[in-house]
Amino acid sequence: MHSHDFQIPIGPQHPALKEPESFLLTMHGEKITSMTVRLGYNHRGIEKACEAQSYIQDIYLIERVCGICSHSHATCFIQAIEEIAGLAVPKRALYIRTLIAELERVHSHLLWLGVAGHEIGFDTLLMYTWRDREVVMDILALLTGNRVNYSMNTIGGVRRDITAEQKQEILKATDTLEERTKYYIQIATEETTIIKRLSGVGMLLYDDAVNLGAVGPTARASGVDRDIRRDDPYAAYGELKFNVITDKHCDVYGRAVVRVLELMESYKIIRQVLADMPEGPITVKAPRKIPAGEALSRYEAPRGEDVHYVKANGTDRPERVKVRAPTLANVQVVAHMLKDRYLADMPIVIAAIDPCFSCTDRLTSLRDSDSGSKNYMTWPALRSYSIEWHRKQGIDFSDLNKKFKVPGN
Amino acid sequence: MIRPGRMIIQVLRSLFKKPATSLYPFVKTEMPDKFRGKLKYYPEKCIGCMLCMKDCPSDAIVIKKVGEKKYIAEINLARCIYCAQCVDSCPKDALESTKEFELAKLTRDQLKVVISEETQSSSEPKT
Amino acid sequence: MANVLFNILIFPGFLFASVFSLTAEYVDRKLCAKLQNRVGPPWYQPLADFIKLLAKEDIVPQQADSTIFTLMPSIAFTATLTAFFCIPLWQTQSVYPFSSDLIVVLYLLTIPTLTFFLGGWYARSVFSMIGAARAIIQLFAYEIPLFLSILAPAMLAGTLSLSEMTVFYSHHPWLVLLNLMNFAIALVALLGKLEKTPFDIPEAETEIVAGTFTEYSGRLLAFFRIAIDMEMVAGSSLLAAVFLPFGFNLGPALGFILYLAKVLFVVALLSLARTIFARLRIDQMINLCWKYIAPAAFLLLVVDLIVKGFIVK
């Protein structure tokens, strides 16, 4: 650190961030020399809370991991449960899940485009995209009963069926949205001030994207051809035809291009789903108690690969739930992309990974405000507390401890 | 063609368009049929199986037995997350989602609603 | 004496200028909302904001230089108000005309930016200091094109007095067309001066919170805001007087309405620019101003001088 360098705290409260998270920038004039990220302001203890509730209750809790990709998290979680329980989900239910997933992607990407506009001071783009996003929000409310937390999934299927009239409504909305998206593609690729602010900013080369483990549109804009929908098909994606959009720009402009082109793919998928949707039941009877077993489920959320791990032990409650939201994979990439860039690029580079910090935070570290010490609880004390807590839930770890010869037991 | 001010035509056209904003408190929005709003409870249909209580993710509903085959429901609207799982869980269709969504009240107590056969479908606050 | 007091306090001074700048802010915000397909604020919104800010607590940060911090808003306000007296509004004469008042007006309109710098710098918060530094960097970028673009019509008229310029152009109305390009350049520079998108770099919300004004609150912020509004009106009036110099002999009533229309037209052009561009970075802004706008302004100055040599005399 030179004598002229100074530090700027971006967050936990800052207009560029829609959620509390802390970035500490070391600046040399207008240039950023380094950046540190501190996560944990939004830790809500969701994983632990899941262990204390039944699977049905967990669906609604998991759905609230994220407001924007609520369907992604719920579907990812339910897929894991269905795999453990060995349920054969009806085809119609899978198609409906795919439909909601794509509608969600449309609303998430349109939202991103508006936020990106706002971050570079282009508020008109924000107002226009969010106005048009209302069309897809209305469709989601029509299909599921709510605009944000759709609650469409249940174990073994979906909760609501789709009627012929609703199909017509969706097709109509898709046409409107497609026309508007074409307009936004034109704006994003032809407006000088937008291109000036986006191209060459937040460079992430192919190798760096792979090494740092970037996911979703952030990785695809660096030429990493990776999409769970195609690579590990779930729901009805195995039977649908679509392209995985990649781009060679490697910058924020590329990420914008990938997202707007993905919108066009989503409309294609929505039309296919509506045309091919088979008749039949929408749910199978699911047991309340899920047999012992474990499963890892992957899902291509609008922001990238979402991973859920569920371990069942034969009761009606999961023994362990692990959620890895896509932002966690992308957040280290931000620090890399901002190195030696201007302060003015900070908001758009952070926004370019479409961050969702509340979904990301799985732990928080507390510090004693007087001494600065991190030791609130010693490690053995935490262990014995945890073993006692699990014993009350009916899970005994003492055998396990003997087996692995854990010191101190 | 790349040039500055690409949006100018649309922007000027908006000048003569009606604003997209919905003037909410003055113009009421009609909710879709499947909307998950405030719960409606039919005490005469209830068999007291308590499945709704068991499945509720937020402990918002309590069914109490008040007499022979007579039940009341205490719904805490502040706790309810409007997922309508109880509606799905109920084997006798004694619960139903309505389109009502303007549920703000001045105190927490006013959000606790007791529905019995006497006050059926009314939403008077508990005193 | 009574006449002077009336001029300073009521018309066209403090009261009229304040009301008109709040109106201009309303027009700017409403038009911006309409262009973005929104409803926009009601007519009393700028006044309500002002009154609300007056009622709020003034907070002076502990580490700030409290004298400079509290003094700057009133200096900004006074400077723009003073500029107002030297600009011809609806007559060929301004309220207090004197020779070479054009230069005084331009310098008075520079003072607000300097107060933004000093107020932000002495607030001693990182965001304010970055905002302050950006404000002063931006000043050097737009000030030259603004001066050059206003100097060209003055050269053509052969005077540095605004009142004499308006007289000259009412005699040679067709020469106004020659200055249309200068008008465009002056508009761009005015956008920079008023710190509006695409040049709202010193107060870029998503980057440095509110830049200079991050630490300001209450009455001090209210005065800064009304000073910015007044700067918008004074700047627009100056542009109207220099580049739209027609209709000065219509009499007080019609002339006054025409004056309002001219200023609001300039304000409308500013709001339109605000809606169709993204914010530039400070390096891009300086590039734009020094590489394209300043040379263009210089070229137009030369053109005006040549025209003056051939046609006028």
Which keywords apply here?
heterotrimer, A: mainly alpha, Cytochrome-c3 Hydrogenase, chain B, 3-stranded antiparallel beta sheet, 49% helix, C: 313 residues, mainly alpha, globular
Question: Helices and strands in order, then pairings?
Answer:
The complex is a heterotrimer of chains A (409), B (127) and C (313).
Chain A (H helix, E strand, L loop, with lengths): L5 E5 L11 E7 L2 E8 L7 H6 L3 H9 L6 H16 L5 H29 L3 H22 L8 E2 L2 E2 L5 H27 L1 H7 L7 H6 L4 H5 L7 H4 L20 H25 L16 E9 L2 E9 L5 E7 L1 H13 L7 H7 L4 H4 L18 H14 L5 H7 L5
Antiparallel strand pairs in A: 1-2, 2-3, 4-5, 6-7, 7-8
Chain B lengths: L7 H7 L24 E3 L9 H5 L5 E7 L2 E7 L8 H5 L5 E3 L14 E4 L12
Antiparallel strand pairs in B: 1-4, 2-3, 3-5
Chain C lengths: L1 H9 L3 H22 L9 H11 L10 H20 L15 H23 L2 H32 L4 H10 L8 H14 L11 H4 L9 H26 L8 H25 L5 H31 L1
Helix pairs in contact in C: 1-2, 2-10, 2-11, 3-10, 4-5, 4-10, 5-6, 6-8, 6-12, 8-10, 8-12, 10-11
Q: CA-to-CA gap between the ends of chain A?
A: 47 Å
Instruction: Please report the first level of CATH classification, the CATH class of the domain at 32-115 in chain B.
Output: Alpha Beta
Strand order of the largest sheet of chain A: 1-2-3
* Distance between the first and last residues' Cα of chain B: 69 Å
Order of helical and strand elements of chain A? EEEHHHHHEEHHHHHHEEEHHHHH
Shape of chain B: elongated
* SS element count, helices of chain B: 3
Radius of gyration of chain B: 22 Å
CATH architecture of the largest domain in chain A: Orthogonal Bundle
The major β-sheet of chain B equals: 3 strands, antiparallel
Q: Compute the number of helices of chain A.
A: 16
Mean pLDDT of chain A: 86
Count of folded domains of chain A: 2
- How large is the radius of gyration of chain A? 23 Å
Enter the CATH topology name of the domain at 32-115 in chain B: Alpha-Beta Plaits
CATH superfamily of the largest domain in chain A: Cytochrome-c3 Hydrogenase, chain B
Largest interface: A-B, 34 and 27 residues
CATH topology of the largest domain in chain A: Cytochrome-c3 Hydrogenase, chain B
What percentage of residues of chain A falls in helices of 4 or more residues? Answer: 40-55%
Q: Stretches of chain A where pLDDT falls below 50 for ≥5 residues?
A: none
Biggest β-sheet strands, sense, barrel of chain A: 3 strands, antiparallel
